[in-house]
């Protein structure tokens, strides 16, 4: 459990980074780095060194750091991504690369390596992905054979290859997952080790200001004290222990990238006149390209903040919640960037205005630390098990929680969230009875529906908390309680409509109905009529949201 930084220290850190970015990373520099496909390693070292010391945020105070928590790291990761996702990835790689040590290392290993990160600003690389295994850490082919001397183990000989490694060509230290005699284990390898061979940088679609390279290990020998945790076979457990935490970082990247794009599209639309008025005054523009994307980005933020708060509160790794946060925020960030290109028209399609670069960059957030498809499976699998364990009551119980919230805060859309969860429970139960989850497609789509339902719930809860004055002091304050309330109602309606329409379609499409009145019975179970009725007021709320986004008085 960690309380993390105080609000003042966090805000000072964010301000220092923004000043750094303003001075050293203006648009022309970012465009040049992208065009030349260049990793500005000296700038990243300055960020992680004595120049700014951003790496201190995730190092415990006892090892020379500032002792930041998950909430602090989310705020910093979002700020990094709003400037450049490639450079942000160079910083993230050290966060990820040191995680096996932070969460699984011996006290001696933590003291030595985390202390060196704090003091020297070492850059790390997280070497888990293999060319043929991808995200499946259980399909490892890399090996770590014991090196024995006089009948005693004195080290390990590592062989294998890694692909898509951030900082792969420039890291000072590599943490590599390999199969030891006792099972998958993490090892620490320093740059320059004999047999360590970083490859050439990949020619990537986006995040071109990051270094991504293959890394080969040919008879790389390390001493026994480079086995993370000092015990073999702990590697997968050590990796899984931080999935919730690390996926929050990537979620913050998706959030930051999406807002980076919208923060260019929104001002542009106030200046671009078409048909006698600014684009920002046209429903056909704002209600398609701006308002929905703002709403779902803020839903992602709400879920990130709540998950980070719980992690900092000692509730565990929250891997499922981390998966939902990443799925919501990365997919929402991608849609926001895509919409921003459309919002700028021809200008959006050109390099000069940066939104096409942001769109290329943010795409990676739906891929690394678990693709969106893997996350859909993870979310569906984990919540399906809860559905079975609770005899179908899990989402009904979630609904009752929001019915109670509606009684206290009737304006935030909690009643619509309750309808959504009840409908979701009905879809899952019908899927169980008819054994529909044998269809993988249905299972994946259930993961998507669950994620958006939980995202809407998160934003509605955040709106209620903001109105009550109970938000975390370090929470983002882009929107007022009024703004969050309006955005929450929009998301709640959209999530409810999605569950009602797509949930019904999935059950029917998979053959889950019985009898001539099967459709009617299911729509009754799902309260589809009430969900449709709850759409009343949607356009009015979108009008209000547009007024708030553009800081104008509603008429």
Tell me what the structure shows.
This protein is α+β, with helices and mostly antiparallel strands and 555 residues long. It has four domains: 7-123, Orthogonal Bundle (Butyryl-Coa Dehydrogenase, subunit A, domain 1); 127-231, Butyryl-CoA Dehydrogenase, subunit A, domain 2; 242-366, Butyryl-CoA Dehydrogenase, subunit A, domain 3 (Up-down Bundle), CATH 1.20.140; 372-549, Up-down Bundle (Butyryl-CoA Dehydrogenase, subunit A, domain 3), CATH 1.20.140. It has helices at residues 7-24, 27-36, 41-47, 70-83, 85-104, 107-120, 235-240, 243-271, 283-312, 319-344, 355-362, 372-389, 394-408, 414-433, 440-468, 481-509, 518-525, 528-533, 538-549, and strands spanning 124-127, 143-149, 152-166, 173-180, 183-190, 196-201, 212-223, 273-274, 277-278. Strands 2-3-7-6 form a four-stranded antiparallel sheet, covered by helices on one side. A three-stranded mixed sheet has the order 1-4-5. A hairpin with a 2-residue loop joins strand 4 (173-180) and strand 5. Helix 1 (7-24) packs parallel to helix 4. The radius of gyration is 24 Å and the shape is globular. It starts with 6 loop residues before the first helix and ends in a 6-residue tail after the last helix. The mean pLDDT is 94.
Overall number of structural domains: 4
Biggest β-sheet: strands ordered side by side in the sheet: 2-3-7-6
CATH topology call of the largest domain: Butyryl-CoA Dehydrogenase, subunit A, domain 3
Number of helices: 19
Top keywords for this entry?
555 residues, alpha+beta, Butyryl-Coa Dehydrogenase, subunit A, domain 1, Butyryl-CoA Dehydrogenase, subunit A, domain 2, Butyryl-CoA Dehydrogenase, subunit A, domain 3, four-stranded antiparallel beta sheet, 9 strands, 12% strand
């Amino acid at each position: 459990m960690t309380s993390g930084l105080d609000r003042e220290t966090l805000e000072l850190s964010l301000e220092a980074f923004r000043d750094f970015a303003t001075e050293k990373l203006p648009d022309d520099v970012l465009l040049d780095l992208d065009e030349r496909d260049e990793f500005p390693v000296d700038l990243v070292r300055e960020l992680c060194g004595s120049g700014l010391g951003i790496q201190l945020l995730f190092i415990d105070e006892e090892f020379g750091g500032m002792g930041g928590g998950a909430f602090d790291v989310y705020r910093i990761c979002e700020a990094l991504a709003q400037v450049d996702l490639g450079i942000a990835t160079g910083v993230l790689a050290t966060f990820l690369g040191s995680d096996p040590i932070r969460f699984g290392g011996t006290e001696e290993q933590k003291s030595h390596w985390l202390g060196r990160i704090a003091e020297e600003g070492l850059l790390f690389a997280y070497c888990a992905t293999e060319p043929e295994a991808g995200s499946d850490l259980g399909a490892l082919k890399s090996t770590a054979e014991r090196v024995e001397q006089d009948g005693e183990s004195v080290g390990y000989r590592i062989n294998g290859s890694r692909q898509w490694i951030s900082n792969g060509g420039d890291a000072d230290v590599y943490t590599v997952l390999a199969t030891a005699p006792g099972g998958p284990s993490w090892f620490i390898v320093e740059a320059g080790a004999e047999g360590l061979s970083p490859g050439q940088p990949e020619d990537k679609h986006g995040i071109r200001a990051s270094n991504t390279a293959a890394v080969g290990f040919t008879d790389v020998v390390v001493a026994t004290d480079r086995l993370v945790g000092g015990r073999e076979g702990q590697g997968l457990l050590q990796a899984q222990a931080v999935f919730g935490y690390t996926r929050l970082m990537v979620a913050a990247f998706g959030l930051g990238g999406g807002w980076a794009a919208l923060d260019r599209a929104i001002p542009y639309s106030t200046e671009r006149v078409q048909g006698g008025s600014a684009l920002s005054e046209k429903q056909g523009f704002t209600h398609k390209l701006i308002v929905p994307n703002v709403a779902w980005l803020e839903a992602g933020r709400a879920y990130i903040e709540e998950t980070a708060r719980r992690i900092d509160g000692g509730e565990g790794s929250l891997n499922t919640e981390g998966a939902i946060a990443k799925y919501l925020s990365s997919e929402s960030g991608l849609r926001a960037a895509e919409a921003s290109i459309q919002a700028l028209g021809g200008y959006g399609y050109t390099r000069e205005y940066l939104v096409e670069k942001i769109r290329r960059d943010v795409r990676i957030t739906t891929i690394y630390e678990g693709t969106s498809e893997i996350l859909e499976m993870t979310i569906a699998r984990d919540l399906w098990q809860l559905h079975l364990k609770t005899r179908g009551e899990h989402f009904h119980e979630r609904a009752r929680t929001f019915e109670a919230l509606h009684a206290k805060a009737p304006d935030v859309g909690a009643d619509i969230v309750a309808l959504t969860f009840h409908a979701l429970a009905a879809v899952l139960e019908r899927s169980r009875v008819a054994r529909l989850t044998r269809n993988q497609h249905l299972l994946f789509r259930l993961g998507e529906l669950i994620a958006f339902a939980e995202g809407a719930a998160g934003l509605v809860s955040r709106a209620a908390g903001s109105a009550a004055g109970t938000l975390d002091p370090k929470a983002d304050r882009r929107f007022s309680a009024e703004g969050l309330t309006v955005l929450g109602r929009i998301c709640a309606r959209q999530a409810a409509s999605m569950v009602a329409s797509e949930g019904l379609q999935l059950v029917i499409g998979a053959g889950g109905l019985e009898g001539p009145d099967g459709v009617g019975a299911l729509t009754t179970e799902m309260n589809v009529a009430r969900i449709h009725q709850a759409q009343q007021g949607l356009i009015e709320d979108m009008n209000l949201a547009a007024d708030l986004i553009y800081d104008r008085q509603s008429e």
